[in-house]
Amino acid sequence: MNQALKIRKMSAQDTSAWDRYVDNHNDGTFFHLTGWYSVIRYVFKHKHHYILAEEEGNIVGILPLFEQKSAVFGHALISTPFCVYGGVIADSDAIRHKLEKAALELGHSLKVDYVELRDKDPRKSEGPWVAHCKHATFSSLINDCPDQILTDIKRKQRAVIRHSLKNNLQWDNKDNTSLCYDVYSQSVHNLGTPVFNKKLFSKLKETFGERCETLIVRNSEGEAVSSVLSFYYKDTVLPYYGGGTHDARDLKSNDYMYYQLMCIAKDKGMAKFDFGRSKTDSGSYKYKKHWGMQEDKLNYRIALIKAKDLPNLSPNNPKYRLFIDLWKKMPLSLSRHIGPQLSKYLG
Question: Among 131, 193, 204, 336, fewest CB within 10 Å belongs to which?
């Protein structure tokens, strides 16, 4: 490797070059962009540790990292919290290993419990990295017209969508982050999960502009019943924060919403639908599997620093069952007040 290679922290002057590198790298994802640096720092107050590899004044590798520190949920260095994908992207494996080694050294200096890299694809590891593949992602190509898009969906799920098309539902994608959040927070509360701070939705829109868009589905009375905040990047649409009210199940409005999103994305020139991650065997995992999309395991890796065991913050963890049951019974207004203090460590 060229001896001129330099590993250093990102500065404010590096952000444009960093994002250009992500845009032009085959493995660069929406979650590697520096916009997340602004969002996570502003909304969740986590300390950032963005590092890059530089050679002759040019960026040849990047690694976004955030430090999460909680007396309850532990102390970790993560690339990247609240994001599906993360980890190093670089010009070569040798440069990637240098950046991963720098992350380990930083983890030791910060005395974290563990360092987590949210790699999308399998990586050959150097050092104490352990596979932590607890999530899967689902994706599909988007066909050319609404009828063909519908035909590509698995038969039973296609029947559900056809049912939804008869329910006098309407949609609009005129950005309304406040209403999108209100519907989403009801959905999360019904699952017994602490909701994020409302500032997250507005900050995402403010930061990413046209790359971030909300979709609202209303019933025949004009009431919002489903919503999703999605990201558009490269040739892909990523529905990210989605959910529905109690009426959504009977109306099949979530199914209607995701089908309409595919059609909208195709009109915008998108070629791929990325349904996002779900914990294996969770309710959302089983729901997405019904669509018949390609399933891929996410190849996250963890290096233990102070911790003796791998973390398990899954809702399926039996020790959280009582908490989840109690949270579902909490008034929605109270859950919106308390939830952000907990969810900031559950990304």
Answer: 131
Q: Which residues of 118-188 form beta strands (DSSP E)?
A: 130-131, 135-141, 170-172
Strand partners of residue 296: 137
Gyration radius of the chain's alpha carbons: 20
For the chain, domain boundaries: 6-133+299-311, 136-297
Both tokens of residue 233?
């990047």
Angstrom distance (rounded) from CA 343 to CA 347: 7
pLDDT tens digit sequence for 14-53: 999 999 999 999 999 999 999 999 999 999 999 999 999 9
Q: Is 36 helix (H, G, I), strand (E, B) or coil?
A: helix
**Which among 31, 23, 53, 19 is positioned nearest to 238, based on CA atoms?**
31
Strand partners, 135: 279
Give the pLDDT score at 1. Answer: 46
- Burial per residue of 283-321, b for 16 or more beta-carbon CB atoms within 10 angstroms, e otherwise: ebbebbbebbbeeebbbbbbbbbeeeeebeeeeeeeebe
* CATH number given to 136-297: 3.40.630.30
List 241's β-bridge partners, or say none.
229
CA–CA separation, 193 and 324 (whole Å) = 7
**Euclidean distance between CA atoms 94 and 2, whole angstroms:** 11
Write down the pTM of the prediction.
0.91
